[in-house]
Design goal:
The chain is an alpha/beta fold and 210 residues long. It is globular and about 50 Å long. A 7-stranded mixed sheet has the order 4-3-2-1-5-6-7, with helices on both faces.
Length: 210
């Protein structure tokens, strides 16, 4: 069986919503954060600037509460089934997220992907400092990480599937033959080989079989 690689974005792809907006709603800041997220996902704002700004608004929150929220997120219909099916077909399935390990590490065992790369909310004495760091901080991060993963696993672009919804997924689209834009912004749809507008990730499997 040919080795294959599937990489999924987390927020609004594997998870139905934006983690940072759900966390921000605790502080009554959901609208403000959602506006920044939307502009970043449309490619109108620099991803790094938008991420650091949004995280700064979470300063002072208890890390335990953030974990609680991240452990109760709604997953996208078909997410688990799609990952299970891809793994049966010989895919290594990985999650890349500009969001947070609190959510992606927890979801790994529930959804069944093999590995996750995401950012870390910095905390001191159990309280968020408003700072963030990690491997997914920039608009180019996903593409760079995908290339590293392909080199490590010995898998080329023709055997790579990527799935995302926003502008920060563009960088990984360059290195995959199958590029799925899932309920995505127009900026991503333009570069996709597969466009899915229905909130059901299993449509990916259905389309792969066509």
């Amino acid at each position: 069986m040919t080795k294959k690689l599937a990489v999924f974005d987390f927020d609004s792809t594997l998870m139905d919503g934006e983690t940072i907006e759900i966390i921000a709603s605790e502080l009554g800041l959901q609208e403000e954060v959602a506006k920044i997220t939307s502009q970043a996902m449309e490619g109108k704002l620099d991803f790094f600037d938008s991420l650091t700004h949004r995280v700064s608004l979470l300063k002072g929150m208890k890390e335990s509460r953030v974990d609680e929220i991240c452990h109760n997120l709604p997953y996208m219909p078909g997410a688990k089934e799609t990952i299970t099916e891809l793994k049966k077909r010989g895919y290594t399935v990985v999650c890349f997220s500009g969001g947070f390990k609190n959510a992606t590490a927890y979801a790994k065992d529930i959804l069944g992907y093999d590995a996750e790369f995401s950012n870390i909310l910095h905390s001191k004495d159990g309280i968020l400092t408003g700072l963030v760091g990690g491997p997914m901080m920039f608009s180019t991060s996903k593409g760079e990480m995908l290339q590293k993963l392909q080199a490590t696993l010995g898998i080329g672009a023709k055997d790579t599937l990527v799935v995302g919804d926003g502008a920060n997924d563009l960088s990984m689209f360059k290195y995959a033959k199958t590029r799925a834009a899932f309920c995505a912004k127009e900026i991503l749809k333009k570069e996709a080989t597969l466009v899915i507008d229905k909130k059901d990730l299993f449509q990916i499997i259905i389309n792969l079989d066509k």
